Amino acid sequence: MSATVTAAMVVIGDEILSGRTKDRNIGHLAEVMTAIGIDLKEVRVVADDRDDIAAAVNAVRARYTYVFTTGGIGPTHDDITADSIAHAFGVPCEYDAKAYAMLEAHYAQRGLEFTEARKRMARMPAGAEHIDNPVSMAPGFRIGNVHVMAGVPAIFQAMLDNVVPTLKTGAKLLSDMVHCPYGEGTIGDALTQIQKNHPDTIIGSYPKYMDGSFWTELVVRSRDPEKLAAAKADIVAMIAALDAAKP
Amino acid sequence: MSATVTAAMVVIGDEILSGRTKDRNIGHLAEVMTAIGIDLKEVRVVADDRDDIAAAVNAVRARYTYVFTTGGIGPTHDDITADSIAHAFGVPCEYDAKAYAMLEAHYAQRGLEFTEARKRMARMPAGAEHIDNPVSMAPGFRIGNVHVMAGVPAIFQAMLDNVVPTLKTGAKLLSDMVHCPYGEGTIGDALTQIQKNHPDTIIGSYPKYMDGSFWTELVVRSRDPEKLAAAKADIVAMIAALDAAKP
């Protein structure tokens, strides 16, 4: 098995914590990480507060291979992510010459004033590298193992597409799902035994409830396709035995 | 202004971090907290891992007035929240006599076996108090300032409805939204000045993007309705000035 590659995400924004905006980036990053064999281990949602952002980023960048942030890199006063990341790394936050020139040209071409607000989007921690933004030009950036991206989902997704090819990836965690028409109370004992019998798999049980009835989605994960198939076969047999026992 | 009441949330579950299940509880808790005047300050999503869960819960319970967890209290082997919370508090995790009797009667009434798996749902940290579950009976629990609830959204929401009346609440943070047809680059400088002129408000700027055009939702928050109205008036005037300046 190749070494495990891990990641954490820091979602930055008062609007998520107030409930005004529903985050759509956690699920997207989680799916992309799973698809390329990186284990997303932790997500933190923090407010637009420099110390909170820096503390969260410092906690996770020390612990995981990669960190991905979303939010707070726009032109307004509440966009403080660049400053907060610079603070976390103990480096100055400055106008990046390349980003400044690029944005200046971008707005000139459109006949728009290059306002102080727009200039803010050229600020980055010293030593950061750009993450291209094909949607609206203003770049994200990478410093150390931290990738700083936009919160607007369309822009976040486009930036992430540019980041993915630069990441080292692990052995992909394979996964297979079995629909189980029984609730967790019915299958729990048998499932515990199946998990014990298949220690190199991770068996997840996800209870579903609608209109008074329960069912379960059982997901088997493993980096080894044969071990995954063996555990899945035992789960299918468990469900068949329950079906056969029905009156 | 009454004292600020704060909260954090810990979302527990591999299925969220793998992207299989999209969380729907963060947004709901955020809305409810905002509605009752509690500031949700931080959310963490952690894996089904005892030490990760305990570390996250211990970090936030020391810092905020209330903690709310979702997930991992069902009957299967991967439901380890009760044990992890007991570990966090340094107390044993035991069968709760009241929960055990209640669940035993519940399953007897339905002619269902009270399996080892179902008995797991009666386990709680010593000293915990029930949070009633009107949907599927198995209770959540409160220990100290930590409220442990189900991950299935319908059950989480029902449990939270039972918790809300027990919480002390702060002065409600009022909020008002102004639709702004201009992007952040256009309004950023003026908005920075408005924020400076209204220090007792929090002005959030949320960029929106679709089909090549940008607009912004501007949200003013304050615990004082007059200060909120004054800041909002300046924002409306800013937009009117931009409209008037259009060719």
Outline the structure in words.
2 copies of one chain form a homodimer. With about 250 residues, the first copy, chain A, is of the alpha/beta class. Chain A folds into 2 domains: about 5-165, Molybdenum Cofactor Biosythetic Enzyme, Chain A; about 175-245, Alpha-Beta Plaits. Helices cover about 40% and strands about 25% of the residues of chain A. Chain A contains 9 helices and 11 strands. Chain A has helices at about 15, 25-35, 50-60, 80-90, 95-110, 115-120, 155-165, 185-195, 225-245; strands at about 5-10, 40-45, 65-70, 95, 125, 130, 140-145, 145-150, 175-180, 200-210, 215-220. A 6-stranded mixed beta sheet of chain A has the order 2-1-3-8-7-6, with helices on both faces. A 3-stranded antiparallel beta sheet of chain A has the order 9-11-10, covered by helices on one side. In chain A, strands 4-5 form a two-stranded antiparallel ribbon. In chain A, helix 3 crosses helix 4 and helix 8 packs antiparallel against helix 9 (about 225-245). The model of chain A has no long low-confidence stretch (mean pLDDT about 95). Chains A and B meet through helix 1, helix 2, strand 2, helix 6 and helix 8 of A and helix 1, helix 2, strand 2, helix 6 and helix 8 of B. Strand 2 of chain A pairs antiparallel with strand 2 of chain B, so a sheet runs across the interface.
